[in-house]
Write a structure and sequence with these properties.
The complex is a heterodimer. By secondary structure, chain A is of the alpha/beta class. Chain A is built from seven helices and 27 strands. Chain B contains 14 helices and 24 strands. In chain B, the strands form six sheets. In chain B, strands 1, 2, 9, 10, 11, 12, 19 and 20 form an eight-stranded mixed beta sheet that branches. In chain B, strands 13, 15, 16, 17 and 18 form a five-stranded antiparallel beta sheet that branches. Classes of the chains: A alpha/beta, B alpha+beta.
Chain lengths: 418, 473
């Protein structure tokens, strides 16, 4: 492969993270950028998530999902990268700091060589099976993602009476989509004692769209032969069981990063986030391969994914210009109920990172939570967060941590709730 | 007017399809009838997909004979039909003293079943080939011939070959009554009446009911439900053999094995149930499987779960198959094929053809009989979307529609065409692997519904099981 056939930056995925990485990368002159998107159009998830709230942090404007996707695409087009749609990336093989990206498309099986690869493959909701929901396997069980594609992209109303499992932000997004499709919402089921989205949202939606939220309830059966006919729920406090007539079950949220490409390319996975392992520069465990957006962790909002994309794109430029220097990674270990922190490490010597970057999640609700970080027993940071709720973004101001000088990869930072 | 055939086979599971395949070689008229709109859509699609060598069948039983026969034929036919087989071998593991002491008996039983290549292995030998097995292996037996195959492709391959060679496929046809009139049977169905000279009952879970409709009362099918967990492809590198349990008096035990799609399967449970339609998974069953994995291979507990399902074995009160040849009544019963049906299917079919000489029917070979090769959907063999040649031939082979399983648009289009086209999403799933992967349709389902809607000329609502608004099918 001749020098001119080498891409400077190859971006995998054309959602908010990938597009924002491309926009950031365009700041560098004479840089060959290629975006590969497996779908026929750019834009990713926001295209069929037709509600407002997109773009506030990155574009400082409140867009609807489709409008946000359109805006990002127009910004990308201005910056002029090459775009390959309908192109699936199978794996990345690295030799001598160059990355061979194996692709398949209607043009055939091709290998693209790049100096930098940015992985922005996003995430998906966990399935009925991975949650071990028992019962039959009729048609009519969908994730929010499939529901929204049916309604917004295909104009198909995939049911008539729906039960929603989960109470995260995305679960309420499903409420709006169901309403738009004219599907009656029979109930929302939440195994925990509280809803995972903001309480006012939950309260308003129940009143507005008129459906009950069954807290402390779990699904103990799915009935129906061809199509869902009912689901059986159990109140875990009273052990009372109820059958709810419906033809649709929306299994919402509980996002998991789409790491197939990373696994096939032998990149490290963070066991806590289940996303691609990265440092605070968003570099993976392989030099010159970066990752950003929801492939790093369960779903953050699109604007956070976009900000991560910009950070990865900017770092890719610095890498190409040989401005990145070797640093040691100091692991941050999390004690339950803290589920994970992303990135799961800090770099030494410490480097300036953007304020939005570090996020943590908890696995259960904690009231009056005082979170502290310790290094070798010494408290280096402490913050009173009030109430912490699962599946919600909890920003961690790592730039305020008092990192001891001379810290090295042998040290460990311990994050816990007091 | 009634349609008339020389032979009608009731039931298009793996056994009925295999019989149809063998009968399609001859100059007779044959119909394959099933209440489902597709072949292999009930028990034959929901099992462990292991091709058994027959080492542990009850010696001298019909089952033993036919599993051995079937295993041999399956291997002979696989390349011409495009059936994937991986002969990865089984490892029977002893976890306690009782099981360890039973090993010589199992070797002896294998010998009686014509399997002379079983070898006892020490724990060291076992851990050296299966280092991820849980602690406490006391010994085991290697069964080199145990294989895995594709339980989806097999019945479709058999039936497609049968149809191409003249067998009539009548899906969506439920037999309601059977009446013997002079020298023919009249089958009343939801889809009109069908006549035949010889009736073959291969109705699986319903084989007892068909047997009674003909006028016998010899056995009752009590479905034995088995629940399964399919683990993510991550788990595939953790094992290389089919890890078999040693059946004890109390339980048959849970196995763990690779699948032909590159996943790992854990199961089955075994519960006798009453409802022949109850393919539910249960909280207890799935939890039970996970507890079993703690001993078998604790590492797989960290691997994400791709899917769960349950299948019903057509078990009866008898230990052996319920095979009856009744030349007097022009009737053949192939019932009670419990858990070895895929392995024995081609053996059963051959056995049926042999016995047809006792019946009043002349079998002459067709001149232009040919098999049909199925498209490959196994992981270890090159897939269509991995072939530059295929994509050059038709660019839709390069258009991936299901990314988890790397299924191309062309494969989905072809699944909806041909002699035995898919008529439902499940049919497409079993012909292509689409929607069977990690995301279970999170990403691809709406698009595939759209594609199938055009290909099958059905509305998306019908494909999704909704007839019209407010009217659930």
């Amino acid at each position: 492969m001749s020098e001119q056939n080498i891409w400077d930056i190859l971006i995998v995925g054309g959602g908010p993270a990938g597009l924002s990485a491309a926009i950031a990368a365009s700041e560098r002159q004479n840089t060959k950028v290629l975006i590969c998107e497996r779908e026929e159009v750019l834009g990713g998830i926001p295209r069929h998530s037709d509600h407002t709230g997109w773009g506030t942090r990155d574009l400082r404007w409140n867009y609807s999902g489709p409008a946000y996707a359109k805006k990002l695409i127009s910004l990308v087009q201005k910056s002029g990268p090459t775009i390959h749609i309908g192109t699936t990336i199978l794996k990345i093989e690295t030799k001598d700091d160059l990355h061979d990206v194996h692709t398949v498309s209607p043009q055939g099986i091709q290998i693209f060589r790049a100096r930098v690869v940015i992985i922005a493959t996003g995430c998906r909701e966990s399935t009925r099976h991975s949650r071990l929901l028992p019962g039959k396997r009729p048609l009519g069980i969908f994730n929010t993602g499939a529901l929204q594609q049916f309604v917004h992209s295909k104009g198909i109303s995939p049911g008539t009476r729906a039960v929603i499992l989960g109470s995260e932000h995305v679960s309420f997004s499903a409420v709006m989509t169901l309403k738009k499709a004219g599907i009656k919402i029979v109930a929302m089921i939440e195994p925990d004692a509280y809803t995972h989205s903001f309480s006012p949202v939950s309260w308003l939606f129940q009143k507005w769209y008129n459906f009950p939220v069954l807290l402390n309830n779990r699904i103990v059966g799915i009935n129906g032969d061809s199509r869902v006919s009912s689901i059986k729920v159990e109140d875990m406090l009273t052990h009372q069981k109820n059958e709810i007539q419906c033809d649709t079950l929306i299994v919402s949220g509980d996002f998991t990063p789409e790491v197939t490409l990373a696994i096939n390319s032998n990149l490290a996975i963070d066991p806590a986030t289940k996303g691609v392992f990265i440092d605070s520069m968003l570099q993976t465990d392989r030099k010159g391969i970066y990752a950003c957006g929801n492939v790093l962790h369960g779903a953050e909002t699109g604007d956070i994914a976009a900000l991560e994309g910009r950070w990865a794109g900017g770092n890719a430029i610095r890498y190409l210009d040989h401005q990145m220097f070797e640093a040691q990674k100091i692991r941050i270990s999390c004690e339950s109920p803290i589920a994970w922190i992303s990135p799961g490490n800090i770099l030494s010597p410490s480097q300036t990172v953007p304020a939005f970057l570090y996020t943590m999640h908890v696995n259960q609700r904690v009231r009056n939570a005082v979170v502290s970080a310790r290094c070798n027993g010494e408290i280096i940071w402490k913050k009173n967060y009030g109430t912490l709720t699962p599946n919600r973004r909890i920003p961690v101001p790592v730039r305020n941590w008092k990192i001891p000088a001379g810290i090295s990869s042998r040290d460990l930072i311990h994050l816990s709730i007091e | 007017m009634d349609t008339q055939y020389d032979i009608v086979i009731v039931g298009a599971g793996i056994v009925g399809c295999a019989i149809a395949l063998e009968l399609s070689r001859y100059n007779i008229t044959v119909a394959l009838v099933d209440s489902r709109s597709d072949v292999g859509a009930v028990t034959s699609k929901a099992n462990s997909a292991i091709l058994h060598s027959g080492f542990d069948a009850p010696p001298h039983s019909i089952e033993s004979l036919l599993v051995q026969k079937g295993y041999k034929r399956f291997n002979e036919y696989c390349s011409s039909l495009g059936l994937p087989i991986e002969k990865i071998g089984g490892l029977l593991i002893a976890w306690d003293q009782e099981q360890l002491q039973s090993l010589p008996t199992i070797i002896e039983k294998g010998r009686k079943n014509g399997q002379n290549n079983l070898v006892i292995k020490t724990p060291q030998e076992i851990y050296s080939v299966e280092p991820n097995l849980g602690e406490g292996v006391l010994g085991g037996i290697l069964i080199p011939d145990e294989s895995i195959t594709c339980t989806f492709t097999a019945p479709i391959a058999f039936a497609t070959t049968a149809v191409v060679n003249g067998v009539t496929w009548r899906g969506g046809t439920q037999v309601q009554h059977i009446k013997k009139e002079n020298n023919f049977y009249r089958l009343a169905t939801n889809n009109g009446s069908i006549q035949c000279r010889i009736l073959i009952n291969a109705a699986g879970l319903y084989s007892d009911e068909i047997d009674r409709m003909v006028g016998f009362d010899r056995f009752t099918v009590t479905p034995r439900r088995g629940e399964f967990i399919i683990l993510d492809k991550e788990a595939r590198s953790l094992l290389s053999h089919i890890i078999l349990p040693i059946p004890t008096k109390i339980t048959k035990g849970v196995l763990i094995c690779p699948t032909i799609f590159g996943n790992v399967l854990l199961g089955p449970t075994a519960d006798n149930i009453l409802d022949k339609n109850d393919t539910s998974t249960t909280i207890e069953g799935l939890e039970n499987l996970r507890m079993k994995a703690v001993q078998l291979m604790p590492k797989i507990l960290n691997v994400p779960i791709t899917t769960t399902y349950s299948g019903l074995r057509a078990a009866t009160e008898h230990s052996d198959y319920q095979l009856f040849f009744e030349p007097q009544s022009s009737y053949i019963c192939v019932g009670g094929i419990r858990s070895t049906g895929m392995s024995s299917s081609l053996g059963i079919a051959e056995f049926v053809v042999e016995h047809l000489s006792e019946f009043d029917l002349k079998l002459e070979n067709k001149i232009n009989w040919a098999t049909v090769k199925m498209p490959n959907i196994a992981e270890s063999i090159e897939r269509a979307s991995q072939s530059s040649e295929k994509i050059k031939g038709h660019s839709n082979y390069g258009k991936i529609v299901c990314h988890c399983e790397q299924v191309s648009l062309r494969e989905v289009e072809l699944a909806c065409e041909g002699p035995l086209p898919a008529r439902s999403l499940d049919g497409v799933r079993r012909r292509t692997r689409a929607m069977l992967g990690r995301c279970q349709g999170f990403y691809c389902l709406p698009n595939i519904v759209d594609i199938c809607s055009h290909q099958m000329n059905k509305t998306p609502e019908i494909l999704l099981g909704i007839e019209e608004k407010g009217n659930i099918r």
